[in-house]
C-alpha cells in the first residue's frame, strides 16, 4: 500500500508539487487568518514556510537544492524553476491597465525609480558591510532588498550562487512582512489617504504582497492603486537589476 | 479559447527573453538583460492592442490570469528549493538590510506625499477616501 503510494508520487513529481504547495499555502492562509488576525498575508507566511522547508530538506540531505533533493519532492525544482517563475511573473503584467497607470503620472515614475534604486543601494551597502565584495553577490542581495522576486530573477540572470539567492529572497521576504505589518501603523505620517498617495507608496515600497496586504489593513479601496504601481515595480526591478544596476556595481567593485 | 491567452503569454515570454539575450550580446554582458521586464511590457502592449480590437475576450484572458495567479505558489515552490542552510548563517544581513530599506522607503513615501499635498491641495482626482482612514 505504502509502496504503491510512493510509486505514484515518484512518477508524478510535478503534480505532487502542485498538491503539496497547495497544502502549504492552505495551512499558511489559516495561520495568517487566525494567528495574526489577517495582519500578515498568507502568501508571506507561505514563502517563509517554503524557506523553512528548504532548510529542513537541506539539513536532511546535506545538499544544495532544499526540499527538491528529496526524491518525492523533486517536482518542486521544476515548479519553482526559472522557466515557471519567469512565465508566471510575466503573466502578472496582465493585471496592469495602461489607462489607469497613466494617472500616476511622473510622480509615480519617480517613486518607481526611487523604490528600485534606494533599496538596492541600501542592500548593496549592508552586503558590503558584511564582507561581500563579489559584484554578483552584491547585486543579487541589493536586488533582494527591492523585492523577493527581483532578487532571485537578477541573481539567476547574472549567475549568483544558490546561497546568495536564498539570502536575497530572505531579505525581500523580511521587507515584505515589515511592509504588511507596519503600513497601517505609519499610514498617518506617510499621508496614505488618497489613490495618488497609494500609487506613490506602491512604487516605493515595491513588493506586491506587502503593498496589497498593507493597504488592505489601512483602507481596502487603496489596494488596486498601490498594487498597480507595485506590479510595475517588479518588472522595472527585473529590467534594471541584471542590467544597469549590475553594471554600476561591477564598475564600482569589479 | 483559453489556450490563445496562454499562447499569447508564451509568445511574449519567448520574445522578451530573446530580446534580453540580444541586448546582452550587444552590450557584451554574460546575462539576460531585463528579458522578464521586456516580456511584461510586450504583454501589456499586446493585451492593450487586443482589447482595442476586441480580440481579448474573457475566455482568452483566463489563459493569462490563471498563470498570473500561480505566481505566488511558484515563488513558494522556488523558496523551498533554495540553499537556506548557508543563508541562515548570515541571517543578520537579511534582517538589517530589510529594516534599513523599509525605513528609507517609508520616509520617502511621507516626503513625496507631503510635496503632492502642498503643490496640489486637491490631490485627490479619483475618489475621496481620506475620511475612512483611521486617525486622520
UniProtKB/TrEMBL annotation, chain A:
Protein name: Malonate transporter MadM subunit
Domain of life: Bacteria
UniProt keyword terms in alphabetical order: Membrane, Transmembrane, Transmembrane helix
Domain Malonate/sodium symporter MadM subunit N-terminal: from-to ranges: 6-253
Transmembrane feature ranges: 12-28, 40-61, 73-94, 106-130, 137-158, 164-186, 198-217, 223-249
Lineage of the species this protein comes from: Bacteria, Pseudomonadati, Pseudomonadota, Alphaproteobacteria, Hyphomicrobiales
InterPro entries found in the cross-reference section: Mal/Na_symporter_MadM, Mal/Na_symporter_MadM_N
UniProtKB/TrEMBL annotation, chain B:
Pfam families on file: MadL (PF03817)
Membrane-spanning segments: 30-48, 60-81, 93-112
Taxonomic superkingdom: Bacteria
Keyword Repressor: no
Keywords: Membrane, Transmembrane, Transmembrane helix
Keyword Membrane: yes
NCBIfam families: malonate_madL
Name the record gives this protein: Malonate transporter MadL subunit
Amino acid at each position: 500500500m505504502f509502496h504503491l503510494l510512493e510509486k505514484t508520487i515518484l512518477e508524478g513529481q510535478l503534480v505532487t508539487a502542485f498538491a503539496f504547495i497547495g497544502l502549504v499555502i492552505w495551512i499558511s492562509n489559516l495561520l495568517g487568518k487566525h494567528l495574526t488576525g489577517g495582519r500578515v498575508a498568507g502568501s508571506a507566511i507561505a514563502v517563509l514556510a517554503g524557506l523553512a522547508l528548504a532548510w529542513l530538506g537541506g539539513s536532511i540531505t546535506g545538499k544544495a537544492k532544499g526540499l527538491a533533493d528529496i526524491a518525492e519532492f523533486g517536482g518542486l525544482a521544476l515548479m519553482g524553476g526559472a522557466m515557471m517563475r519567469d512565465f508566471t511573473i510575466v503573466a502578472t503584467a496582465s493585471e496592469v491597465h495602461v489607462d489607469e497607470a497613466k494617472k500616476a503620472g511622473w510622480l509615480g515614475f519617480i517613486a518607481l525609480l526611487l523604490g528600485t534604486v534606494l533599496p538596492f543601494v541600501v542592500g548593496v551597502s549592508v552586503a558590503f558591510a558584511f564582507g561581500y565584495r563579489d559584484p554578483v553577490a552584491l547585486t543579487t542581495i541589493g536586488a533582494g532588498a527591492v523585492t523577493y522576486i527581483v532578487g532571485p530573477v537578477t541573481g539567476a540572470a547574472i549567475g549568483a550562487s544558490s546561497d546568495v539567492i536564498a539570502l536575497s529572497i530572505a531579505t525581500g521576504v523580511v521587507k515584505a512582512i515589515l511592509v504588511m505589518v507596519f503600513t497601517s501603523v505609519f499610514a498617518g505620517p506617510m499621508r496614505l489617504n488618497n489613490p495618488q498617495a497609494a500609487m506613490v507608496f506602491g512604487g516605493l515600497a515595491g513588493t506586491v504582497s506587502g503593498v496589497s496586504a498593507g493597504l488592505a489593513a489601512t483602507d481596502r479601496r487603496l489596494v488596486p492603486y498601490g498594487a498597480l504601481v507595485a506590479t510595475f515595480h517588479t518588472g522595472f526591478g527585473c529590467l534594471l537589476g541584471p542590467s544597469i544596476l549590475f553594471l554600476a556595481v561591477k564598475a564600482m567593485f569589479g | 479559447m483559453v489556450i490563445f491567452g496562454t499562447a499569447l503569454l508564451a509568445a511574449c515570454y519567448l520574445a522578451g527573453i530573446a530580446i534580453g539575450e540580444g541586448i546582452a550580446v550587444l552590450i557584451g554582458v554574460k546575462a539576460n538583460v531585463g528579458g522578464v521586464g521586456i516580456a511584461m511590457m510586450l504583454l501589456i502592449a499586446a493585451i492593450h492592442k487586443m482589447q482595442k480590437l476586441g480580440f481579448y475576450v474573457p475566455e482568452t484572458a483566463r489563459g493569462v490570469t490563471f498563470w498570473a495567479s500561480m505566481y505566488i505558489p511558484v515563488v513558494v515552490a522556488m523558496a523551498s528549493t533554495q540553499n537556506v542552510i548557508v543563508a541562515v548563517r548570515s541571517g543578520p544581513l537579511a534582517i538589517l538590510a530589510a529594516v534599513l530599506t523599509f525605513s528609507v522607503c517609508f520616509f520617502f513615501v511621507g516626503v513625496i506625499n507631503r510635496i503632492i499635498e502642498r503643490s496640489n491641495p486637491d490631490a485627490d482626482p479619483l475618489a475621496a477616501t481620506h475620511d475612512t482612514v483611521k486617525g486622520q
